[in-house]
Design brief:
two-stranded antiparallel sheet, three-stranded antiparallel beta sheet
Length: about 110
């Protein structure tokens, strides 16, 4: 019984490690989703332009919600996204300590 429990535990741990490695390789991008038609938009300006151009039903109240798009390893980042972990991007953080709130910039 002990051997089968050990094998089960090792199998569960291997599955957990594989899933954790997959999640670590994923990137998340925040976007806005239109509450009327479900369109995914880059930012509030794009949402405003979308609402002016697209007909929604009479109950539409110009609402949206923030959603996360998961980008798997090897997939291209969506347009207008900055991958701060990319070797072509240098992120500068103006903080004296990691717990201090400060301005940051990416270029």
């Amino acid at each position: 019984i002990f051997d089968s429990l050990c094998r089960s535990g090792i199998s569960i741990a291997e599955q957990h490690n594989a899933e954790a490695a997959k999640r670590a390789a994923e990137k998340r991008v925040k976007r806005l989703q239109c509450g009327g038609c479900g369109a995914i938009l880059d930012n509030s300006s794009a949402f405003q332009q979308h609402c002016a151009a697209v007909e929604h039903d009479e109950d539409f109240i110009y609402d949206c919600e923030e959603v996360e798009i998961v980008v798997s390893e090897g997939d291209a980042m969506p347009d207008s996204s900055i991958d701060l972990e990319s070797p072509e991007v240098h992120a500068f953080y103006n903080a004296s300590s990691p717990t201090t709130v400060s301005l940051s910039a990416a270029c």
